């Protein structure tokens, strides 16, 4: 039993050490998984129970399980970082726990406490610490990506909140999310598809939002773009976010603007951290509406000097170009992405323990 009350059922057949080392040398993103997973069950009569860490492996679900039909599901993304002294830490897990509860409320799922959320990460890492990569250099961003998720597992085809729910955490060693690493990506502006509307699930981290983005993502890939940018559903004017990350715009005069949270945008933990780090670097962060016309005009006049995407998986990735059916918006001058690079370095230095954690953002796993 771990200090956070999880029973441990060790994997009798973990991947052998040589295979693990090969995976850790070049993990890619989301392709390989560690030896265990954490699990907690919820039933409407008992509440949360059965905390355990068990061997990683397929789930057994009844074909009539509610999640398979009505997508009652939420998830999170958070990373474990190995510091130079070998210790393993995570970044602002209470923010992910809070967002997970907000997502749960929206999807009519039960809420999980900070104690169980953070406890499940610690319990999993108590078994799978060897799966946290050691970055080869300060420029490298390898980590163990943790994916907590919650599914409606009741066998029932009626449309109502499930009375049985399962929560899991799986872990996947990860390098850069985009194949080109931190090179600028091109993104596609979907003229037709929308990600979220007012009153919908845009702010929740639920699978449905990502499923709904995939047709647009396919369109993006057909145009050699790595991600799709969505405009708001009401006016088709305001920039919201990319399929899986938030956006920032850097202005020549030191302002750094990100679309404000209106209920249709995911409240990224990286987004929130950048707002704070930017302020400390003497930049002027602004959370406000920003229109596609402002992007177009700012890029053309040189007022906007950088655009970057951010998220747990993406960290900070520069955006080189926005393409659409009838135009391409490119920044006028190549600023070298200096502001994004500086913020990225500061964020990574903090996460990997290379700078002092003055804000208490790190939690040891
Ligand atoms: C994350 O950044 O953790 C996400 O969930 C986004 C996804 C594109 C991997």
UniProtKB/TrEMBL annotation:
Pfam families: Aminotran_4. Keywords: Amino-acid biosynthesis, Aminotransferase, Branched-chain amino acid biosynthesis, Pyridoxal phosphate, Transferase. SUPFAM superfamilies: D-aminoacid aminotransferase-like PLP-dependent enzymes. Its EC number is 2.6.1.42. CDD domains: BCAT_beta_family. It comes from the Bacteria. One of its GO terms (molecular function) is branched-chain-amino-acid transaminase activity. It catalyses: L-isoleucine + 2-oxoglutarate = (S)-3-methyl-2-oxopentanoate + L-glutamate; L-valine + 2-oxoglutarate = 3-methyl-2-oxobutanoate + L-glutamate; L-leucine + 2-oxoglutarate = 4-methyl-2-oxopentanoate + L-glutamate. The keyword Ribosomal protein does not apply. InterPro entries: Aminotrans_IV (IPR001544), Aminotrans_IV_CS (IPR018300), Aminotransferase-like (IPR036038), B_amino_transII (IPR005786), BCAT-like_C (IPR043132), BCAT-like_N (IPR043131), BCAT_family (IPR033939). Its cofactor is pyridoxal 5'-phosphate. Pathway: Amino-acid biosynthesis; L-isoleucine biosynthesis; L-isoleucine from 2-oxobutanoate: step 4/4; Amino-acid biosynthesis; L-leucine biosynthesis; L-leucine from 3-methyl-2-oxobutanoate: step 4/4; Amino-acid biosynthesis; L-valine biosynthesis; L-valine from pyruvate: step 4/4. Belongs to the class-IV pyridoxal-phosphate-dependent aminotransferase family. NCBIfam families: ilvE_II, PRK13357.1. Acts on leucine, isoleucine and valine. This is Branched-chain-amino-acid aminotransferase. It comes from Chromohalobacter beijerinckii.
